[in-house]
Amino acid sequence: MDLGIAGHWAIVGAASRGLGRGCARALAKEGVNLVINARDADVLAATAQELQSLNGDIEVRSVAGDIGNEAVRSAILTACPQVDILVNNNGGPPPGDFRDWTRGDWHEAVDANMITPIELIKATVDAMASRGFGRVVNITSGAVKAPIDTLGLSNGARSGLTGFVAGLARQPQLASNNVTINNLLPGAFDTERLRSGLDAASKASGQAVSLIREQRLQGIPARRFGNADEFGAFCAFLCSKHASYLTGQNILLDGGGYPGTF
Ligand code: NAD
Q1: Substitution site in 17, 36, 74, 194 for ligand 1 pocket (most atoms within 8 Å of beta carbon)
Q2: Closest ligand 1 atom to the C-alpha of 68?
Q3: Vertex 148 angle, CA 143 and 151, to 5°
């Protein structure tokens, strides 16, 4: 299927590894020009080179730095001649016990996983509407639907973004001008973040990583973790011309892990 987005420009945040990189790879294969961001300049440069090698017809630009920083966001926006597609992604907040979290910890989480994507949406959607095409995909978490106790900072901050997006996506000046805003909710995907979580759980419990991994897989009907490329393929479809009637939705990619009917 031709997704109909070749030649468009996309910003993908936190894209040097993991799910962001998977989205950038899928968009590159579809002929989308990219501005990618992540903190580590060397890893980001290697990812940019890899994306360029996937498709010699596209342009790939990179902006290194913390996407939570206003100057970095401004550099990302300046690097992108026209933002047709915005994939909002960032690192996730650390796990822990809410009894230990300070106001500062909460502000950091809300800033990173709610306000940062909202600022990028604010900077881009009205111009998308004036051109009659725009796609925003926010990478959030399955924890928005099925909260994970130890990830309270993530549950809270991402739910704030989800509530905001639910209202914004339904503004007629966006929806009637072919601008869609949707959230992709990853369950368990085999990325560095997931692997470091398994390592931390192993250290905390004294159980082998392989055992923790197996226990985690038992909670997933697909009996495997997702991979970043399949996540990216779904993201690219959401960004396609075919997905113009889908907006304001929360789509869970979790191998059947969430047990509810809706
Ligand atoms: P990852 O650790 O594999 O990759 C994270 C990427 O984000 C890296 O490229 C890193 O350099 C970049 N990054 C981190 N903080 C950044 C910042 N402040 N500014 C710019 N770049 C930054 O993580 P992942 O598994 O790909 O996760 C991506 C997002 O999805 C995270 O918010 C994570 O919490 C969420 N998530 C992941 C899973 C999963 O199973 N992997 C499940 C639910 C939610």
Answers
A1: 17
A2: 18
A3: 90
Q: Which residue has the tokens 């931390």?
A: 200
Q: Rounded CA gap, 236 and 147, in Å? A: 26
Element (H, E) at 252: strand 250-253
Q: How far is Cα 202 from Cα 63, in angstroms, rounded to an integer?
A: 35
Domain ranges of the chain: 9-189+226-253
Per-residue pLDDT of 173-224, as tens digits, reads 999 999 999 999 999 999 999 999 999 999 999 999 999 999 999 999 999 9
Q: Is the pTM of this model over 0.85?
A: yes
- Best residue among 162, 193, 229, 254 to mutate for probing ligand 1, ranked by most atoms within 8 Å of CB: 193
- Residue 157 is encoded by which pair of tokens? 């901050």
Tokens of 126: 């009205």
Q: CB of 68 closer than 6 A to ligand 1?
A: yes
Quick check: CB of 37 below 6 Å from ligand 1?
A: yes
Whether residue 70 has its Cβ less than 6 Å from ligand 1: no
Identify the residue whose tokens are 């987005």: 5
Query: CATH fold of 9-189+226-253, please?
Result: Rossmann fold (3.40.50)
